Amino acid sequence: MPARLARYLLRETAGLYLLGVAAFCLLLSIDLLSVLARFLIQQGASLAQVGRLLLYKLPYFLHLSLPIAVVFAVLLATGRLAKDSELKAAYALGARPMGLLAPLLVLGVAVGALGLVNNGYLEARAETAYQRLIDGFLYVQPPAQVQSDASFRIDGEGVFYASRIRADLHDLKTAHLQGVLVLLDDGTVLTAATGTWSSVSKTWALDDVQRSAPGAAPAPAGTVTVPFRLEADPTQTLARSETLPLDRLWQQIRRLRQAGGDAGALLFQFHRRIADAFTAVVFALISGALGLRVRGRATGFAWTILLLVGFWALWFLARALYDTGALGPVQAAWLTPAVGGAGALLLVAWSLRT
Q: N or C, which terminus of the chain has less Cβ within 10 Å?
């Protein structure tokens, strides 16, 4: 009987889960639909092209829809079972609470694995295709990749900063620099409005430089070339992190660390993709523990709303705490599943005791 009960519970949950994923994807796509409608009119895109844009954004919508639909499905399914007294009948026949929690935990693990593939790989590739199609409408040629407020610390050379770096599409080994400041190891400061980064010669060539040696007044120095031994092409370094799968994102984090750059934002995104997928397991535990106590679908729906509101609030709070420096990138990325996991364990312990 436990195996039959587990299969029955999963069947009840699976249909509602698919419905929940579709509903949350639709809710998340409302803003994009209005943008694409305007795009259809102003840019002359066909319905097929707009459909492709929506398809490319589907992994982005699934990023959060996959885990949060677990709450919706489990609580409504267990609410229906409670309303029809099927939970009471199962307990009367000797079913144990863990017999109900185990299949729901399996569902959470399966959704988490699917979410990791989606967040880590499908979403990045789909974003690349989406940007390529958008660029084909908005530009004669795709815009260069851009990075703002980039800073690097290279041992033996100094600190390098540029307010804007733009890769050159016609020469993939070159990037254009704006608002440049270089602090050499001997204390010399170089400032320039523009410059060029060459990954072939591994240099920054600065135009109309103002040089400030230690203890001396700033003086014009013309064009100055300084070594910049970063082991990456400009296009590799400047690629938007949203378009990088997990393995390439980790490589970029390592390159920036080796060059002395700040990889905090990339590290936050790397861990958050994994943490958001893992949230499905936490949601399965929380909703399963609550599902053992609900008395009808109305109660299950009310708990669904409360949990989702709490999740959204904590998810955005984690980002704000990272942006303000209150938490490091790893701690902020895992804050939501950590708090949810602690709450889930307390709920499970309470449900099993009572």
A: C
